[in-house]
Design brief:
single chain; 155 residues; alpha/beta; six-stranded parallel sheet; 6 strands; 38% helix; globular; binds flavin mononucleotide
């Protein structure tokens, strides 16, 4: 199984989470490629394997700057992503009550609109919770991998 982690980040927290998830998931049988979203466009979804969107939220509920080109390209080109299976590990802060975790939410809604299918629930990390995001990421991704394997086994 190949997992592509796509990282949207402003100050590196999502990248740290992605690194933890890569270490936890990459065991030889499951191969993981971590890609910063900088410079990516919608063609990234033609890569082999499943996708894990790991992104924070900025501005007023926007995706981070390095995720903008990919997000806008998907919105403009609207490729058929019905072959795509994905998960979302989102980061945000409940202090921004109106737009909490909207970065992950925006990707989730857009990918679903384009026909992709989400595996598991979208995680919403809260920076003001005191819970370390990289520790949560470690637990969450193992649960996600189990769900992914169930999905694959069910055909
Ligand atoms: C200027 C600024 C704007 C932010 N806007 C939001 C927001 O609208 N909604 C939200 O849930 N979190 C918001 N956040 C919180 C970040 O998403 C959160 O701190 C996250 O862990 C940062 O991850 P990163 O280092 O990967 O970018 C904002 C943070 C900053 C500094």
């Amino acid at each position: 199984m190949q997992i592509n982690i796509l990282v949207g980040t402003m100050t590196g927290t999502a990248q740290l989470c992605a690194q933890e998830m890569e270490l936890a998931l990459d065991d030889g049988e499951t191969r993981v490629a971590t890609l910063m979203m900088d410079g990516l466009d919608s063609t990234v979804f033609s890569r082999e394997g499943v996708f894990l969107v790991c992104t924070s939220t900025y501005g007023q509920g926007d995706v981070p700057d390095n995720a903008r080109a990919l997000y806008e390209d998907l919105k403009a080109k609207r490729p058929d992503l019905s072959h795509v299976r994905y998960g979302v590990f989102g980061l945000g802060d409940r202090t921004y009550a109106e737009t909490f975790n909207f970065g992950g939410k925006r990707f989730d809604e857009l990918l679903t609109e384009l026909g992709a299918r989400r595996i598991g629930e979208r995680h919403m990390h809260d920076a003001s919770s005191g819970v370390l995001p990289e520790e949560t990421a470690l637990e969450w991704c193992q649960d996600w991998l189990a769900k992914l394997k169930d999905h694959v086994a069910a055909g």
